[in-house]
Design goal:
The protein is built from 5 helices and 8 strands. It has about 220 residues and is an alpha+beta fold. The chain folds into 2 domains: about 80 residues, Nucleic acid-binding proteins (OB fold (Dihydrolipoamide Acetyltransferase, E2P), Beta Barrel), CATH 2.40.50; about 100 residues, no CATH class. Bound molecules: zinc ion (ZN).
Length: about 220
């Protein structure tokens, strides 16, 4: 079969056999795929230095007739975030790896957007904003001035079971209006700062959403 090429982000590489990796990548046009990178763990492999997360990669592969394709080339482009943001960016990769499964056509543009959101913001706030962006792109969030159950606009909303809810849909712990305004403002503009109390409350909401969808909570909050 003809060789294919695409822009990609590396999500994961898993050692296979003595010298190879199985890689999981999010590709711009091919979505999430896994490929065999034969010999990639050998000292002289041309893949060795290039197969890194957090870089814009250009990969080529030969699709398998039945099973997994074989990686044939990797070119490493620009880093998506500066080195200081790497731990947070790896967290975004881990969340994306849960949100986008093998065969899903999406994920590349969404992860690229999350990297950009992170790169422009301070660390802790940046990872919250990056994960929020990923969750929002997957349709797991709703507007913070509406009840996510009944869809009605509402002034007094509460946080219950990882959702914004009105009193008639279950209520819960009240969500302050200030927080509900500052989250979208912070997502919109890099000039907006959030108070430490708001950041803590936001982090709790995000962990709730991750847990509800079976995604391991972030380990840095
Ligand atoms: Zn409601």
């Amino acid at each position: 079969m003809a060789e294919l090429s695409d822009d990609a982000f590396l999500l994961r590489r898993v050692a296979f056999g003595d010298s190879s990796y199985i890689i999981h990548a999010l590709c711009r046009h091919h979505g999430r795929i896994s490929l065999m990178a034969r010999g990639a763990r050998r000292a002289k492999s041309p893949f060795r230095a290039s197969l890194e997360p957090l870089y814009a990669l250009r990969i080529s592969w030969h699709p398998g007739r039945t099973g997994m394709g074989n990686l044939s080339d990797v070119q490493r482009g620009a880093a998506m975030v500066d080195g200081a943001h790497s731990p947070e960016a790896l967290q975004l990769c881990a969340v994306a790896a849960h949100l986008y499964q093998e065969g899903d056509p999406q994920g590349f543009v969404e992860l690229q957007r999350a990297f950009e959101v992170l790169a422009e913001r301070p660390h802790q706030a940046g990872v919250l904003a990056g994960v929020w962006s990923l969750l929002d792109d997957q349709g797991l969030l709703g507007p913070l001035d509406h009840c996510w159950q009944c869809g009605e606009p509402c002034e007094d909303l509460a946080w219950h079971a990882a959702e914004c809810r009105c009193a008639s849909c279950g209520g819960g712990e009240a969500l302050s209006r200030g927080l509900r305004r500052s989250i979208p403002a912070f997502m919109q503009s890099t000039r907006v700062a959030m108070s430490p109390a708001d950041l803590t409350a936001w982090a709790g909401m995000i962990q709730d959403v991750l847990r509800r969808h079976g995604i391991r909570p972030l380990n840095m909050l």
